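Lab notes, practical 5.
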Amino acid sequence: MAGLDKRVASYDEALAGLTDNMTIMVGGFGLCGIPEGLIAQMVKMKIKGLTAISNNAGVDDFGLGLLLKQHQISTMISSYVGENATFEQQMLSGELNVILTPQGTLAEKIRAGGAGIPAFFTATGYGTPVAEGKETREIDGRHYVLEPALHADFALVRAWKADTMGNLVFRKTAANFNPMMATAGKITVVEAEHIVAPGELDPDHIHTSGIYVDRIIQGTFEKRIEQRTVKA
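Output from the prediction step:
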């Protein structure tokens, strides 16, 4: 990687500096738009004690489920985790610390982290366990909960297209949590389906500016279906 060219040649280089007990953000929604190769590399690295911020925890044999299977995640900050039996077992046994967060609040906590906003008030969760231990305030007759922003040591993102300078385009629903997570990591690593030369991306179609991106690697991806429904 030299100058403004942010490409790296290996997954070892892509995740250099990631160590035990760090906080990671991992893009995706269900199995859509997840950085599969970067997750596989973390499994290979056998990193332990991770705090993972992600909308969900993959499934038992794919995505973040692979890290859970190897007991590499100690804390999950997430919104929806209903597809993963390993997650359920570890949560109920007390092995896994789980901080469930309403989906919109989770998205805004990440966006705020990337925007330099330390915290914000939201009405979501007031009067429920979500608000326990948090500051609340009444504003114009309505009650709100103070939610702190989220940051990560590494943000792991999947993009449809990236140019070598780190400008990103996300495709359809794979946009999900990826754009906001790209802004909230101390080190943002992008696994891209296609990498093109500077100038090949239409500036009007760029979703995330290259100023947020530190490393880019060319990925290969498996098409997975999270739930298959067939007609009898």
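Observations recorded by the TA: The chain has a mean pLDDT of 93. Helices lie at 11-14, 36-45, 64-69, 85-93, 103-115, 178-183.
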